[in-house]
Specification:
This protein is of the alpha/beta class and 192 residues long. The chain has nine helices and five strands.
């Protein structure tokens, strides 16, 4: 399997680029944000708990997220690989993912970090908020999410640098131009 993590702050384009990567490489998409939003709209117990954290711009606790991710991964049909989008968001999640993949003789082949300046992130997320209907795309929550990213999520970068699969890519500019750089990074890893 060719497993990818698409990483970066909120608004860096993870979802947009995931769609394009999936189409080109025929991978299975696992987005923890999408799973949580589905749980909320299904009004499950998990969804009700998660909503409180999401609306405050905080992370849903690792204990909830790791179990949820493992269930989703175990239920996967045979696949050419998985693209993890919005996960891992803490170093403990990264460790749990490594263990989960190890058990199956799998690993992360490349971690792509989309690098975007904060000012641009805020602009993009406010714009998205006009149409997304997402409860967390408002200025106060956006600022909180960026702070949480910097303190809890950014350290995940070092974890994957140590794993030897890190690739930073500038996430500003045209969508297709960014996608082209991502494909070059993926193809180089696939050939290695
Ligand atoms: P996203 O759609 O990836 O921007 O996620 C939206 C929100 O869902 C985040 O701000 C968190 O509150 C929650 N969330 C999504 N993925 C995770 C994760 N891996 N760990 C903790 N919380 C998460």
């Amino acid at each position: 399997m060719f497993n990818i993590i698409i990483f970066g702050p909120p608004g860096s384009g993870k979802g947009t680029q995931s769609e394009k990567i999936i189409e080109r490489y025929d991978l299975t998409h696992i987005s923890t944000g999408d799973i949580l939003r589905q749980e909320i709209s299904d009004n499950t117990e998990l969804g009700q708990t998660a909503r409180q954290f999401i609306d405050r711009g905080e992370l849903v606790p690792d204990s909830i997220i790791i179990g949820m991710l493992e269930n989703k991964f175990n239920a996967l049909q045979k696949s050419k690989g998985v693209i993890f989008d919005g996960f891992p968001r803490t170093v403990d999640q990264a460790r749990a993912l490594k263990e989960m993949l190890n058990k199956r003789g799998e690993r992360i082949c490349i971690m792509i970090n989309l690098e975007v300046e904060n000012e641009e992130l805020i602009d993009r997320l406010l714009k998205r908020g006009e149409t997304s209907g997402r409860s967390d795309d408002n200025l106060e929550t956006i600022e909180k999410r960026i702070k949480v990213y910097e303190s809890l999520t950014a350290p995940v970068v070092d974890f994957y640098k140590n794993e030897g699969c890190y690739m930073g890519i500038k996430g500003e500019g045209g969508i297709d131009e960014i996608f082209r750089k991502i494909c070059m990074a993926i193809d180089t890893k696939r050939m290695a």
